[in-house]
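testing teh design pipeline on a random one, pls ignore if ur not involved
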């Protein structure tokens, strides 16, 4: 029933934000950040369960854990980037949001570079054969 907790936290966050925005607009964005952090903490337990299940499936399939680790970390980068960019967009900071999105893309690409290098080496090896 994680979704019930998430939905309840989201509704409370939005209501509290709407009330606080009228009284103290400079503090209101902190309510959104705090509410989103609570939601992520609630979901982190589920995410850890998914991560262990993926590891187990990859072991059974005989796929290298290094590749799965890169994919899981890339997913984490995407989630954190989207979270931060959405908060920036919500607070009318689209240029900061764009910078966060660019940083996320660069982070995911740099994380995947060893895999890209391995694929390139295999392709070169096949072309030379």
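output:
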């Amino acid at each position: 029933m994680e979704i019930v907790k998430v939905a309840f936290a989201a509704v409370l966050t939005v209501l509290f934000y709407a009330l606080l925005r009228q009284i103290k607009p400079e503090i209101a964005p902190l309510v959104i950040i705090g509410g989103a952090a609570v939601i992520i903490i609630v979901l982190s337990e589920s995410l850890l369960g998914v991560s262990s299940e993926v590891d187990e499936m990859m072991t059974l399939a005989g796929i290298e854990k290094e590749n799965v680790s890169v994919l899981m970390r890339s997913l984490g980068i995407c989630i954190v980037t989207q979270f931060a960019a959405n908060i920036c967009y919500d607070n009318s900071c689209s240029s900061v949001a764009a910078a966060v999105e660019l940083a996320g893309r660069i982070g995911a690409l740099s994380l995947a570079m060893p895999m890209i290098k391995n694929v390139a080496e295999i392709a070169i090896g096949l072309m030379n054969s």
